[in-house]
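Quick one, probably user error.
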């Protein structure tokens, strides 16, 4: 693997996904090798299983794989933010570490950002969801409510497959749950969103680390906060430098 400056950084937040590490890295490699100079950044969000050890073993064989570790779990948004801040690529792509997001769609997302002069975000939109009926229902309801209030034009903000310009992401106000509101916040800053349909699949192994009721009320407060931010946004005045 080349140690040259990457143009693309792949950020994968994980917590207790030891058995999913090697298969997913192989799929990311198959999708990107020969297309971009890239790095893979795993953000180990306070795992208590063998996730760290599995990553370390693979890092010994690959010089484009990096591991960041949170001393304790900070959640998905915190993990994504840590990865983006450490990224060396101008374009960052994310995907969940459980295997449900197929890395085969990464090239389409990255290309959508590269080709769109004003595209700040390429968002994966899942089709053929493989989650439980209850999880699909809660996602459908949450997306409809969010879209009705924020009018972000996005049917599925929960998909982990995304690509965006690093500098634009770092402009966003940070809060826990940020990853679910990226389309609305990107539009707030004047950027366009590209959408890519991605086929969902079952996780490789293990169980989900994220529940419904533990984030319901926080999600409602986040929605109100983002709504307020959008309403408070004023057009940025045109700026010119006055020379002597």
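Nope, works fine. Designed sequence:
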């Amino acid at each position: 693997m080349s140690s040259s400056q990457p143009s693309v950084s792949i950020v994968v937040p994980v917590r207790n996904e030891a058995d999913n590490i090697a298969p997913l890295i192989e799929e990311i490699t198959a999708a990107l090798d020969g297309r971009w100079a890239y790095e893979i950044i795993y953000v180990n969000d306070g795992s208590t299983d063998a996730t760290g050890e599995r990553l370390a073993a693979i890092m010994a064989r690959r010089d484009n794989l990096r591991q960041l570790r949170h001393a304790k779990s900070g959640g998905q948004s915190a993990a994504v933010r840590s990865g983006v801040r450490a990224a060396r690529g101008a374009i960052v792509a994310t995907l969940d570490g459980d295997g449900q997001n197929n890395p085969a769609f990464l090239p389409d997302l990255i290309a959508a950002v590269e080709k769109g002069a004003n595209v700040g975000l390429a968002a994966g939109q899942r089709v053929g969801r493989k989650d439980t009926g209850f999880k699909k229902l809660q996602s459908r309801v949450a997306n409809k409510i969010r879209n009705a209030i924020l009018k972000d034009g996005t049917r599925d903000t929960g998909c982990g497959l995304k690509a965006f310009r690093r500098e634009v992401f770092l402009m966003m106000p940070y809060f826990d749950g940020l990853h679910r509101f990226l389309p609305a916040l990107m539009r707030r800053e004047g950027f366009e969103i590209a959408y890519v349909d991605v086929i969902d699949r079952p996780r490789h192994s293990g169980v989900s680390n994220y529940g419904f009721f533990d984030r319901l009320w926080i999600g409602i407060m986040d929605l109100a906060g983002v709504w307020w931010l959008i309403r408070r946004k004023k057009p940025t005045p045109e700026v010119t430098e006055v020379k002597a």
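The CA atoms of residues 35 and 107 lie 8 Å apart.
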